[in-house]
Design goal:
This protein has about 350 residues and is an alpha/beta fold. The chain has two domains: about 5-130 and about 260-310, Periplasmic binding protein-like II (D-Maltodextrin-Binding Protein, domain 2), CATH 3.40.190; about 130-255 and about 320-340, D-Maltodextrin-Binding Protein, domain 2. It contains 15 helices and 14 strands.
């Protein structure tokens, strides 16, 4: 079967009613298409394209429209604009959980879904298909003769003892614009007060704030920064595979694992296609492709059990705590006071 990939212009709106900002969009058209699966995601197309093509081999009459937006724009599209997508994929677990909690996701029941471990799904509404660590990313050349930190206390000491070396050379998320960054930060703060101590030390060193892991990785490669905190490790592994300078450090006091999740919104016009795509992502073939073709870590409880320091972020109502408007406002103000220093 011959596939026709149609590239659509960036930053366009999907239909008159959808005013959310689109970062990328492609239509994977097939000859003699009988239906179209619409996927809204904050995952870069490069990681998902091999999965889409493999899904179409299993479903040769289904075209796929894949739309990329930031996690906040994605949430707005479903929550505010009732955009008509059949599957919504996001790394912002808290925002996905809010869509579920607010009744904006519909149930998906299948033998494949039922076979998932309970920690990797929330009821029959939200399904995880990757487990991705938040890591410290370090430039060996930029470190010179300094010792690589292995935990947050060592990182704190390194920055405090070498302010001139790291001034303007630290990267982390801008929590005001990054959904994944906000998730990691709130989870850090619940895990240990070390997060706030790090924030104060980093803030005094004029850190560079980024929207996403890909920008931090680029900043490290160009020498703009020496280290980046809470980068999504799977993205870093894929980009730095042939780069001997960039070093990934899973911090040994704890390493959070983000679960990339999928749901079927209540606005889906073809929920059965959405369900078939979710089943594809979480069945045995899909997990293998996620690992080998997409280069992302699939759901694997045994891998998480290899270290007591690995901490998967738990799906459930607890994720909603820091989405409360008042709590979020207070958290961001405290973070800005520490990180965005005059």
């Amino acid at each position: 079967m011959r596939y026709i990939i149609v590239v659509i212009l960036l930053n366009v709106f999907i239909g008159v009613a959808d005013a959310f900002e689109v970062e990328d969009e492609e239509l994977f058209a097939v000859e003699n298409s009988r239906s179209q699966l619409r996927v809204l995601s904050n995952t870069d197309l490069a990681y998902v394209e091999p999965l889409i093509l493999a899904y179409q081999k299993r479903n040769p009459s289904v075209s796929v429209l894949y739309t990329v937006a930031s996690s906040k724009e994605l949430f707005s599209a479903i929550n505010n604009e009732q955009a008509k997508y059949d599957v919504v994929i996001s790394s912002a677990m808290d925002l996905q959980m809010k869509l579920v909690n607010d009744g904006l996701a519909q149930a998906h029941d299948s033998s494949v879904a039922d076979s998932m471990p309970r920690w990797a799904r929330w009821r029959n509404l939200l399904f995880a298909f990757t487990q991705e660590p938040a890591v410290l990313l370090v430039s060996r050349a930029g470190m010179r003769n300094l010792k690589l930190p292995q935990n947050r206390q060592e990182l704190l000491t390194l920055l405090r003892d070498n302010p001139d070396h790291f001034a303007g050379k630290i990267g982390t998320y801008d929590l005001r614009v990054s959904g994944a960054g906000y998730l990691f930060a709130t989870q850090d703060s619940r895990q240990s007060d070390m997060f706030w101590r790090l924030a104060e030390v980093m803030g005094a060193l004029n850190p560079k704030l980024y929207c996403c892991s890909s920008e931090m990785i680029d900043g490290l490669k160009t020498g703009e920064i020496i280290l980046a905190y809470n980068v999504v490790g799977s993205y870093a592994s894929a980009v730095l595979e042939k780069d001997s300078d960039g070093t990934i450090v899973p911090l040994s006091d704890y390493t959070h694992f983000m679960l990339r999740t999928a749901l079927i919104p209540t606005t889906a016009e073809r929920p059965e296609l959405g369900g078939s795509f979710i089943d594809f992502l979480i069945d045995a073939q899909g997990r293998q492709l996620i690992d080998e073709a997409a280069g992302l870590p699939p759901i694997d409880g045994k891998a998480l059990a290899k270290s007591q320091h690995f901490r998967p972020i738990t799906l459930g109502p607890g994720l909603l705590v820091y989405l409360d408007r008042i709590k979020r406002g207070r958290f961001l103000k405290e973070w800005a006071d520490a990180m965005v220093q005059p």
